[in-house]
Amino acid sequence: MTLRSIIHYPDNRLRQLCPEHTCFDDSLKNLVSDMFETMYHEKGIGLSAIQINVITRVITIDVSKEQNQRLTLINPVIIDRREPIVFDEGCLSVPGFYEKVDRFNYIKYEATDIDGNKFVSEATELLAVCIQHEIDHLDGKLFVDYLSDMKRSKIQKGLIKQNNNNSDIQRKENPYIK
After folding, report:
1. Are the CB atoms for 52 and 38 separated by under 8 Å?
2. Is 63 left (phi over 0), alpha (psi -120 to 50) or beta?
3. Are 27 and 34 in contact (CB under 8 A)?
4. What is the pLDDT of residue 75?
5. What is the pLDDT of residues 120-166, one digit of tens each?
6. Which is higher by pLDDT, 174 or 67?
């Protein structure tokens, strides 16, 4: 297992449309393992492959407090959605920011598991929201796209400021970084 670097908004790599994943081998198992390790390390509940710069339709999710209910979705597609709700969302690619987003409280979805078996399942509440959020990533969309231009601009400026502050801290800690 390897920790991977997460791409942060407004990086354009997050805007790529991910193609279907077609190879169900050890490299997929390694990718999924790395994704779970990275997600848990970053204290997230969901991660899409594109967020670690792997351009394919793979998602890892675990909404349990105990981090013991791993869900891996390959090529997920929502086939039904009901019960609109507003949900306060954050994102590992938009660290430190949370905003209300319109989602659905119930979804029915189709996906493939890590062994290549297709299945259909349903999700509600936090799990449903998380799946919708991660599928958006696979389609090149982020939760900030649901916000007003003003809120999106504020978040973008905040992240740029965070990155500049982190760079200043790194320069102070390491005299070889200029």
Report:
1. yes
2. alpha
3. no
4. 98
5. 999 999 999 999 999 999 999 999 999 999 998 899 888 888 777 65
6. 67
Burial class (CB in 10 A: 0-12, 13-18, 19+), 60: buried
Q: Is 111 left (phi over 0), alpha (psi -120 to 50) or beta?
A: beta
**Around Cβ 46, how many Cβ atoms within 10 Å?**
26
**What is the band of 8 on the pLDDT scale with cuts at 50, 70, 90?**
very high
pTM of the full structure: 0.89
DSSP3 helix / strand / coil % (the chain, rounded to 5) = 40, 30, 30
Contact by Cβ (8 Å): 59, 73: yes
Q: Which of 99, 110, 122, 134 is catalytic?
A: 134
Active site residue 20: no
3-state secondary structure at position 70: coil
